[in-house]
Amino acid sequence: MMKSGIDQDALIQMFATATASGTEQVRKGVTQATLAALQGRELSLKNIRSVLKTVAQSASAGAAMNKLPGVDVEDLLDKAVVGMDEALLKAVDANRVALQQFVNQGADLREKHLKKALTDLEAMEDNFIGSLKKAAEAAGAQASTQWAPILEKLQAGGTLSGAKAATTAEQFVGQMQTALRDTRAASMKAAQTMAESYTALVSGVLIGMSDALTQGGTAKPRGKK
User: Fold this and answer.
1) Cα 200 from chain centroid?
2) pLDDT at position 100, please?
3) Segment 158-195, tens digit of pLDDT
4) Listed residue (167, 94, 84) closest to 127, CA to CA
5) DSSP conformation class of 67
6) Secondary structure, 3-state, 135-177
7) DSSP secondary structure string, 10-38?
8) Domain segments of the chain: what residues?
């Protein structure tokens, strides 16, 4: 079954057959599957939410089926979260690179679509945790119980992708403020230069007028006819 560009059957099977010593492979598998799904679509919050929810539901279904000795379902779900987090780090990096390219080309971060990109970055962590909550609720009471300690830990300590997204957004907001200050400074400097030029012009005119008066004062008077 395919949903959100993800082979859910393959993911479910991976979790259902994971051994106690194979949880790192589960993490890598989740990272690759999540990243591949994100790369195959527009990187909007809506699409990210859809991918994360699908991966979390698949992880929950597969982990519930795993009856192998020594396997800790909570550990499997935790590895799923780490895998998704690692994929989202790449998504944050992609946003950062794209925003920097726009800035380098002279784009104004106050423009509507760029402001939305910054807002989406700031909402990345809440979006991540919210997707996991919805997946847990959809999976039923038992799954919700298994997800509870993981969600509690995430809400207390946050995610790597969320922290990086917030830092990235803060960085670009700082750039925007610096650009505004530089623009104001440049405007003030230009105004000052114009003012100085004006006073110099006035001085020049005044000097010219003074010379004319001086010349007029020393000129010999014309004789009477």
Assistant:
1) 50
2) 84
3) 999 999 999 988 888 777 666 555 555 555 555 555 55
4) 84
5) -
6) HHHHHCHHHHHHHHHHHHHHHHHCCHHHHHHHHHHHHHHHHHH
7) HHHHHHHT--TT-HHHHHHHHHHHHHHHH
8) 2-185
How distant is the alpha carbon of residue 212 from its chain centre? 67
pLDDT band of residue 32 (cuts 50, 70, 90) is: very high
SS3 content of the chain, % helix, strand, coil (to 5): 80, 0, 15
Q: How many helices (H) and strands (E) does the chain have?
A: 8, 2
Q: Bridge partners of 6?
A: 3
Kindly report the length of the chain: 225
Q: Which token pair is 65?
A: 């089926």
Q: What are phi and psi of 41, to 5 degrees?
A: -155, 170
pTM (2 decimals)? 0.75
**Amino acid in position 172:** F
